[in-house]
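Researcher: Here's the sequence for the chain we discussed earlier.
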Amino acid sequence: MKQQTYPSITILGSTGSVGEQAIDVALQNNIRVNALCANQNVKRVEAQARQLGVSFCAMADEHAAEELRVKLADTSIRVFSGMDGICEMISIQNDPEEVVVNSVIGEAGLKPTLATLQAGKKLALANKESLVCAGDFVMRLAKERNLEILPVDSEHSAIFQCLRSGDKKAIKRILLTASGGPFYGMRREELGEITPERALAHPTWNMGAKITIDSATLMNKGFEVIEAVHLFDVSPDQIEVLVHRESIMHSAVEYIDNSVIAQMSVPDMRLCVQYALTHPCRVEAVIPQLDLTKTGKLTFAKPDTETFVLLQLALDSIAAGGAVPAVLNAANEIAVGAFLSKQLSFTGIFDVVSETVTKLSDARNITSIDDIFAFDSAARTLAAELLKRN
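Model: Thanks. This is the structure I predict for it:
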């Protein structure tokens, strides 16, 4: 049988967890990788570039880019530097069928998302902050360019797959699952002494430090609600978060006839990456087969938003609209960074983010993407000032 061919890809965030898994999927499916992008890990990017035979690389850190140029001087690989360089690299590649996998962490992924869509390329999105910070602008641009955004996050990939079972007008609810994180069942008074080491021990998924902490605070789930609102054009009250400790059902869609279509598999991000890159086709598995007899049972519970207040704050932020979700994200990035460097307590993350969002309530009023970036900057400044009091 002739092997199926797929469009070539660019991987942004190639040294992160999703980026590495995207490379694995590409190698197993004979998908050409044209370009790579990372922040500072020169050694790993050099190894990836040589293994994959890419044409382009970009490093967000300009010193790292210069070092990579020296390392790759014996090749024809062109190296770009800084955010402008990353966006230029995306735009100059002339393959109209190319898919850009954006797995950059944080707000830093927004400009590459916009550059991808402006270049008329299909986007496989693992950078949820693009939609958290500027969902209205991103989705409008995608619609104007008639471009599809393929979700890579496990929950949104699951929803995307479930939505093939019915018409969008027939959606009643989206059931968005959450593992509950490592501190499920604990009360706020028990969380005060949590260390970064404990918080980084996620019970199910192997992720980068930032996302793992967001999972522990349930902020990640709040971001995913905001992302789902934009991706699937539903209202926040059509989304219900369910704690599902086994992480087997990755999300589900309930239709108006009360039928529920769920997507289940072993928890492995390679499936989500592969489906985004081969959609609408399904291809041979890159993950183990699901054995429900070994799973034994599936459990579901409501999240504790009184203890893990950031989930409710995220729901309030998407209801407020404007740049409020961008403020939420910016404050969270500052607070999580401080926690990881042991400058802030675990519950201090809740306090810094909540106070920043409260004090920048005027973020509801925006008219352009520039306003998003302005409020992002203001939130980072304010959150940094609040750190001094915690």
